[in-house]
Amino acid sequence: MNRWTIRWLLVAAALMAFTFESPAPLVYRPGEGWYYEPVGSKGEWVKGRAKDQLEVAKQAFEKKDYSLALRAARRTVAQWPLSDYAPEAQYYVARCYEARGNGEKAFREYQKLLEKYPKYEKYEEVMQRQFEIANSYLAGKWFRVLGLVPLYRSMDKTADMYEKIIQNGPYTDISAQAQMKIGQAHENKRGLFKKAPDNFSAAKAYERAADRYYDRKEIAADATFKQGLAYMRQSQTAEYDQNAANMAVATFTDFITLFPEDPRVPEARKNIELLRTEQARGSFQVAKFYDKRKRYEGARIYYNECLAMDPNSPYAETARKRLEVLNKLLGPRQESAPADKPAASAK
């Protein structure tokens, strides 16, 4: 039995558990949902004023009775949504889910708090809590099915969390960090179905960080450097399309120009040299593609381009020798537009 079969059986078992008879009566309250009232309880936790109801939630939370704290907090929000106590009650709703380990649900409840009560005094604390929750999923925490059973990882859903944090406060320090984390989430797209890293999306996320937070030198420098690395990784996966290598060279060049005192400048220069070699390799592969199909003029163009990119690359000597043969075969080179490159999938 494989692990996915086991996980789905656990989901089914969790759902079936809700059909078992309970010794406590099931109670429904509008705006609060269904919950079990303990045997012998006369509903002492239900209060007639928002202030008192919130106090029940706080005291229960301090005692780690999260079930009661959640019921009391939700009732405060449902019965007195416009009261001065409603924002704090919504805060405790989210805190209860967070304390129970349901980060996804906690994140949504925190989001409700910020959207419904944008003047809440703990706004920055709430954003920080959302950020820490998103970080836990970035580190590999599993999302839950129906809010019950942890079953899968998702870097797309994690990136969406960071996007919401940015929307809540676009120019805060937390949002600057969140934008960087989006890039990391795209780089982490591995696991289920063995997705490959999305280097282009990562590069774009880092580019947005560098543009939006250009006045934060540390963030802007880190974003620009990581943008170059993302393009560089993409260039190493491409067979014929060297656009990523070109963008990596341009980005590292910008990095050296904008942040000349950064300790990573020598690494950026070294990466540019490696990328020039990669560009030479790409042109060499295109030249071979045309050469094999006896489209010799196109081959000559790209052998020359290979030498122009990096005259000392491992491909340079072979390119020079082949050019000697082609120049004798074709005669003087005619000035014309470069041949179109073959599709990336061509072999």
Poorly predicted runs of 5 or more residues: 18-24
Helix content: 55-70%
Query: What overall geometry do the principal axes of the alpha carbons give?
Result: elongated
CATH topology of the largest domain: Serine Threonine Protein Phosphatase 5, Tetratricopeptide repeat
The H-level CATH homologous superfamily of the largest domain, spelled out, is Tetratricopeptide repeat domain
Let me know the number of strands: 4
Q: If you compute it from the alpha carbons, what radius of gyration comes out, rounded to the nearest whole angstrom? A: 29 Å
H-E order: HEEHHHHHEEHHHHHHHH
The average pLDDT is: 85
Q: How does the major sheet shape up?
A: 2 strands, antiparallel
CA(first)-CA(last) distance: 40 Å
- Widest sheet, order of strands: 1-2
Number of helices: 14
* Overall CATH architecture of the largest domain: Alpha Horseshoe
Proportion in β-strands: under 5%
CATH class categorisation of the largest domain = Mainly Alpha
Question: Any descriptors?
Answer:
64% helix; two-stranded antiparallel ribbon; single chain; elongated; Serine Threonine Protein Phosphatase 5, Tetratricopeptide repeat; 2 domains; 347 residues; mainly alpha; 14 helices
